[in-house]
Amino acid sequence: MARLLEFFGPAIHWNRSLWSIGTSLALKEVMEASEAHRAGILGPESLQAAIATSTRLIARDPGIPGDQREVLQKSLNSTGSKTSLRYEGLEYRTLQQIHLALDGQYLDRWADAIGLPNPDHGAERAARAIASHLLDQGFSGGFLHRWWSYKLNYEKEPCTLAEALRAISSRSKEPLREFDVLIVFPSRLESSSKKGFTVPRRWMEAPAASEWLKTNGFATEALKQLGGLLLSVTEKEPEAAAEAAAELVNVFAARVLVSLKKEIRPIPMAWVAGSKKPFKINRQSRGVHVGSVHRENRVWVESEVDEIVDPAIELLAPLQSSSPSAAVAGGWAAIESLLSEPDNRAGAADRLAMIVACSFARAELTMLSYAAQENSGPLTDRLAATVENRDRAIIVAEAIMAGSLPDLPAPADSAAVARMIAVLANPRAKLADIQTYASETFRRLYRQRNLVLHGGRTSAVALRASLRTAAPLVGAGIDRVVHARYVDRLLPLELAARAKIGLGTIGSGSPSACVDLLGK
């Protein structure tokens, strides 16, 4: 439950974020990739990468019945390593038929599996599968955070996780609803027949907008608006409707900007009929954070521009908050500019994944060090006197290995400790798993970039999920590249080589080895 709340929360550090998409969406992505491959948009390696991800997610997924899982694996693996899943062929149709029946009972099957005395999965894998499925279904993170918080903290009759899963499963089966959403502007939209611009049909002047707000129970006293757009969108729940309406307005604003050279910005709130309060629609940060730019005092650079990493930071900027199409193009361009080779552009995904895997332990242990310091115990004074994050991470790693780390009150921190116990006990295998997950996420970003730029597919099935999962990891990896360049003057591929060596040679028993994989 704690991990679910973390995944749905508004601000989460990259090492605790949700990296993968759900099994159902992965199958849809395979089918879309098969079509794109036939159209010449994606190459065979891109299709094979999507198939590999789907195959891994399907394995031991209790959300899929065992017999169907076996059929799916055979259909996916029958393509072999050198051939591709043929669009609308027999194996494609097999995937399609099973997928059509998958979503309806997926969460109920997970509820059954969780209720078993000795389930064949850990809490982490269960939370990731459930969270990714719900987000892929179209629920907003805000709605899910509130829903699970209520179940966890406020419901009169406590429920088990299995019972909560059956409840949200019933909610997910409800048909999509149509919502009226009002987004208002601080200035009027002026019609101009000369310029070929007509005010949208559902534009409301200020008095009509105020009347609509009052009729639907919203306060208007402090709101300064000169009109708004009343949009009808079909979504799962009100906050998802507010987000969808905001995206429509952003598309409209982009068209006005490029056609009329005029910038229009709405007030960053959306009022949904039937809701008690408006929803914030600020262009939410996708979690890209390159703190090395600030730490090394490179936010403003008048001279000595680094021709390797500084352009990449500029390319990375759209990944933070721009439209999905611009974000995926800019995000991959930043990765490719740093870590690609002339004959292997997709390989940049694997290199960044190695860097991310090498960064994981230090990031997780550093967070735990601050949690341990706040929780009075034998490590509190020692951690309070330690300045460098590296040293703090080693202190906590040593305590975990010695079994002397005090119990931390936050369940999410306890989950992190459990993850680090596994990593420290078998770092080579566990970090290799992390590298695989990160590589799949970056390769998906690459596929989405190709679908957008080569196929013009701005509504690809996994585009938004790809941005949600990849953005924090891209920021974390590029942060390490930037730090290595500014501080140690390392080339990006030199850092990737260091990561490759570290992952290939690390052994168990040394906390500092896990922390120093990229250097001290």
Characterise the protein shown here.
This protein is mainly alpha-helical. It has three domains: 2-172, no CATH class; 177-280, no CATH class; 286-520, no CATH class. Helices cover 60% and strands 5% of the residues. The chain is built from 23 helices and five strands. The chain has helices at 2-8, 23-38, 44-58, 66-77, 90-100, 103-114, 123-136, 141-154, 161-172, 206-215, 238-260, 292-295, 309-316, 318-321, 324-339, 347-374, 380-384, 389-402, 411-425, 427-455, 463-488, 492-505, 511-515, and strands at residues 177-184, 203-204, 228-235, 269-272, 279-280. It has a five-stranded antiparallel β-sheet with strand order 2-3-1-4-5. A hairpin with a 6-residue loop joins strand 4 and strand 5. Helix 6 (103-114) packs antiparallel against helix 9 (161-172), helix 15 (324-339) crosses helix 20 (427-455) and helix 15 (324-339) packs parallel to helix 21 (463-488). The two termini are 35 Å apart. The model has no long low-confidence stretch (mean pLDDT 92).
